[in-house]
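Section 3.1: Structural characterization of target chains.
Under the original work plan, the team committed to producing a structural model for every single-chain target entering the pipeline before any wet-lab resources were allocated. The record below documents one such target. The sequence was received from the expression subgroup and is listed exactly as submitted; it comprises 950 residues.
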Amino acid sequence: MDPIVLDSDKSAKSSRDVDVEDPKSLENGELSQPSTKKKNRRKERSRKKKLTSLDNQADDISGQVELLSLQDSLLSSNGPNTSFTAFTPFTPTISAENPLVNIAGLESSVSSPSKKRSKKKKNVALASIKKLSECNGELKEISSPGISEFLPETSEIPPVIPTDTVKVNPRNRRRAKPVSEYSSDFNHESITNVCDRKSSSNRKAKPQAMKPKPQHFENFPNSSQVRQKQGGTGSRSRTNRSSESMLNENKFDDHFQRELVEAMMKNQANVVKGFIRINQRNFREAYINNPDGSRDIIIDGVKDRNRALEGDEVAVLILPESQWKNTDGIQKVGKVIYILTQVHHRQAVGSLKKMQDNNSRVALFSPRDSRVPRLQIPMKECPGNPKDWENCLFNARIVEWNDVRYAKGQLIGDSFGVQGDIEAETRAILLENEIDGAPYDRSYQVFFPEPPFVPTENDFKGREDLRKLCIFTIDPSTAKDLDDAVSCEQLDNGNFKVGVHISDVTYFLREGTPLDREVAKRATTTYLVQRAYHMLPRELTMMCSLLPGEDKLAFSVFWEMTPDAEVVSHYFTRSVINSCSQLAYEHAQVMIDDPNYQWKEGEFPPIYGPWTVEDLKKVVLSLQSLAAIMRKHRFDTGALRVDQTKLMFHLDSAGEPENFAAYINKESHRLIEEFMLLANMTVATALQSRFPKLSFLRCHDEPQPDMLKKLADTLEKFGIVLDISSAGSLHSSLQRCKSDSNDTRFLALNSLCSRPMVRARYFCAASIDDVQYMKHYALNAPLYTHFTSPIRRYADVMVHRLLSALLGYSDELKWSVDYVNSIAANCNKMKFCAKKAGEQSNELFLALWVRKYGSIVEEAVVLDVKDRSFDALICSTGSNIRVYTDKLSASVEFKNDFVPQLSIVWSIDGTSQHSTQIVTMFSVVRVALRVSNTNLLKLEASLLPPIEQN
């Protein structure tokens, strides 16, 4: 690593500049004498300060011996030709010939009779020097790359000068300053003085060494103190020094080099990797999962997050134990030293306004997502009059981010609408979540048949003809992309032949075409309240959709099952089907609830072919009987389900929300769910057997044990026993609570139990060595994948291609592990983005509905209590909201003796009486919901007195 190189500035006039003297006069470590003029008082104070800093210097250096030894071993283990220059920005070459500190020089300097020091001060200094001597003896020689990148192109690499010599400005010899005074500020790094050899023959020659730059000081713990001592790195006026001293505090540390980071992770040198999660309510707090499964590692502050944004894969250096958190248990603290994979797209939606200091050069862009930094946008790039920016929405990208407080940004186009407008807000949701909502260009139509497409006998080759089988779809009433259909017929032996039929998208979507690449990029269909943004072009979506009365190409899975739902055998085939009807879940549910129901004209959807309502009802009831047994068996053998409230909105003719209701899962939903799960598991097992390295699978890791344990301990105080030993035991615990007939408590428990859960993810089989880590925790399935929705998920497209190769319908795949991993990573990212977009769309329409009525009163159940607020779940919407209590017209007291609780004393209107309300976990409270004054789409809640107080 490169030493710090300090150089004189030709135009330097500041009395605090650090300059380099002619090396010939410094060869023997002799102190150059200042002029005979009266000594500067500041320099005298500096010399006295030097004595007290020596002892600190010794402590700092000895504390770094172990770190330097670690670096040396890392470098050695990676071979002599491996260059790691980013462990710290600059590290000196240390050896017996070039020690970290020139002990002899320091001793002669301290003991010099010319120094008018007291005996006591000399003894203290000599004792400190002795400690430094011991440190020098422990240090090993560390390889250092060249420093040529910091020197002028014409300069030779200059000699290293002992660090106890004096730096002298050739034009102002009074400005002599012992360099050793700085060494305590740099721990194990020292400042090395360099000047060109040519200056040794001519004292008036211009020094040729390099001028120090700000980045030379950025990564040192005491860099701000050093800046205050040396007064900046160039010619600065006294009025600018205060801003210079703050420079480092607002600058990010340089990232380490990737090679070094990988070596440190390989050698387990307190460096771990993970995907960063930033607290939405407090952007200064970020976390990564601890690889050992214990409590999350916290990254405290934006500076230690070091330019990483939500979702980025980062390498984190674990800080010393003395810096760990110890609030409600020990928590490791780390800092980001490298961004391994930049997942976040570095764009944001927000508002634009003038800087508060009326800076005419830049405007301030404030992202809606507080986890993204504020951006300074050049005023010349901003549209029109700043007064016209009010309430407008803009999209901007990060161009450069070196300052903790602001990043340099660039607007992407003009304003795309005003806050509160449905279309503008929908556009904002898409932009924030990196969802491409633009229709496909017509040029892509050359890559699939021209609609309307009617398959011919040539398309049927190699397919099983199932057009005479009673097959139909069951989906939401508004569904257009019908991926799956079902069938069921009873065999002569009393068993059932059950079929799941999935649209054969890969027959049309050819691998490697420009269309395929664009579909892979979009990765999923995104469902918002008022519309869906399809993964496939609209024409191809309808071509693949299993619409009733049309011949469609499909991939089918058949099982022979006993009446007790035991699978006897199964097989896969490509097929051609003709769905006889498009049922909604409501139609199937009526058949299950009331098999004898007499359908009125127009109530039941059209039926194509020779089939009747009775035929379809027979199939539905057979499937329901099998699905109920399958579901019970799944949960009896260890599966888990944690339900979350989903909303359905009814819109008026103008697209405004008219009302909403919670989405309720019934037997008809669970019927389809069971057979889709069975199909996915069956395909996963087949693929892993045939393609053990390239299988495209989906796993769900166990929840974070510390969080789950903490939740179980908390619930025990409320008399709730939560068995967290397995997914099945957790499910059983929740079901016991459900049987208590306390709906609000069960809602709260589901919400609380979802927090420790980790997201399921796609992966390439080769990326996981141990098969036990391939399992799906919630489903309690050893292998799982997604096969049943290729119209709306690219992951399923990958699985279909693997299955096609397995069955010999296509050539052997020539995929690499890296390729499959990259597709899996993008599918994971875009699936999560689509999920967030759907949730934000719900929040948008809920806020619009509340705004329409001004304010609404809702019942909420408390999830967590803090000293001046509590978090609650709105029972009717499933929304989480924070309710503040510090501005209530009531007396509020926080207690945390046994469980956290708020004691709120309300005054009863019109009387002198008071009533006390206790708010703790699971308390049911009334809140008034309203739209925020500052954010038209943010709901705020205020606590209302208990109903009996009104």
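The longest strand covers residues 567-578.
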